[in-house]
Design brief:
The chain folds into 2 domains: about 160 residues, 3-Layer(aba) Sandwich (Rossmann fold), CATH 3.40.50; about 160 residues, 3-Layer(aba) Sandwich (Rossmann fold), CATH 3.40.50. The longest helix has 16 residues. It is elongated, with a radius of gyration of 21 Å. α8 links the parallel β8 and β9. The strands form 2 sheets. It has a 6-stranded parallel beta sheet, with helices on both faces. α7 packs parallel to α8 and α12 packs across α13. It is an alpha/beta fold.
């Protein structure tokens, strides 16, 4: 049961209208914690929504984009827990060049990365206060995949970091009849919409479906034969985890964030930007059931990492450990249950 006036501020620059991975992470964590404390899910802090009670802790997604909120919290409440969750652009770009992002690392009492390879991307000085929490999704029952239509799906808003053009170029390679490419995501720059429409006009087996609600997207992931992630940088791709939890094998660019999700020995990697390599893997999956089964088996081995109860326990333990750190709050000040906060603190 919630305790009165125990509020955790959860800052996410991406809110519901963004419908992206950062928002889904923030919303999921808010749900995990909502039974034990009040949650203020905000795009920035301070906020007029949190004025009548003294907030007890802050969780901020994105070291650079939430930098002002992080700095304001550290100034207002220097002894209270400040947890920063690092995104792909944080880990693989901003913290190496941006002063605000680096200051966020210094101010944080705890850091979170969303896959285990992310720890290696952190500067040595900050690694000791970081932990890995994989994102999660409920497992879906396997779907009966269409027999005469081999579906290849990419999910993610069309922007540079996701490299949507590699998927479009891969679709332009020669394929046997029945192999179809679908792409889901809003175009965040006009040039991507232009390219997607041109690809669809030129290739009957390619469709750009635009942005779709998450429930519809998950069903399309479940029915696809392959989920493709072409990203150039990823903190921990939500869609990879959702594919694994939907019994859909993955083809992914060989980048740190994807390797951290799927493991070093995964057989479905292609070089970033290599549309020919991606096309060759698609052909092999369509022509060789044994190879597709291999990928499915390797994904199934990773599935225990992505269970909602595991993520919930780690999130609650994270808050409990931060609250019990030197200079922090009493361990029970956030009313976190012992049954879900029993992991050792790092």
């Amino acid at each position: 049961m919630k305790s009165e006036a125990k509020t955790v501020v959860l800052v996410s620059p991406a809110m519901a209208e963004s419908n992206n991975g950062n928002w889904h992470t923030a919303h999921r964590w808010a749900q995990f914690l909502s039974g034990y404390c009040d949650i203020a899910l905000l795009p920035q802090w301070p906020s007029p929504q949190v004025t009548r009670v003294e907030p007890q802790a802050m969780v901020a997604l994105h070291a650079r984009r939430s930098a002002e909120s992080i700095q304001a919290w550290a100034k207002a409440w220097p002894g209270k827990p400040l947890i920063v969750v690092l995104t792909g652009t944080d880990l693989y770009r901003d913290i190496h060049f941006d002063a605000d992002a680096r200051q966020s690392l210094a101010l944080a009492s705890r850091l979170v990365v969303l896959q285990d390879a992310g720890l290696a991307a952190l500067p040595d000085a900050w690694r000791a206060k970081a932990r890995v929490i994989y994102q999660s999704a409920p497992a879906l029952k396997p779907a009966c995949k269409p027999v005469h239509r081999f579906g290849v799906l990419m999910v993610g808003h069309l922007r540079d970091e996701k490299d949507p053009l590699t998927f479009m170029r891969a679709a332009a390679h020669g394929f046997a009849a029945g192999i179809h490419f679908d792409q889901i995501g809003e175009a965040l720059a006009p040039r991507f919409a232009v390219q997607a429409r041109a690809t669809a006009q030129r290739l009957p087996h390619y469709r750009w479906l635009g942005g779709l609600p998450r429930a519809q997207t998950r069903q399309r992931i479940k029915r696809a034969h392959l989920l493709v992630n072409c990203s150039l940088m990823e903190g921990g791709a939500q869609v990879i985890m959702e594919a694994v939890q939907s019994c859909t094998p993955v083809l992914a660019s060989r980048i740190s964030g994807n390797i951290g999700m799927l493991g070093t020995g995964y057989a479905g990697y292609f070089a970033p930007g290599d549309d020919a390599g991606l096309a060759a893997l698609v052909r092999r999956c369509a022509a060789e059931p044994a190879f597709l089964d291999l990928l499915q088996g390797q994904c199934a081995e990773r599935a225990p990492l992505f269970g909602p109860q595991t993520e919930k326990r780690l999130v609650i333990n994270l808050l409990a450990c931060a609250a019990g750190s030197p200079g922090g709050l009493p361990h029970d000040h956030l009313a976190l249950p012992a049954s879900l906060s029993s992991l050792p603190c790092p």
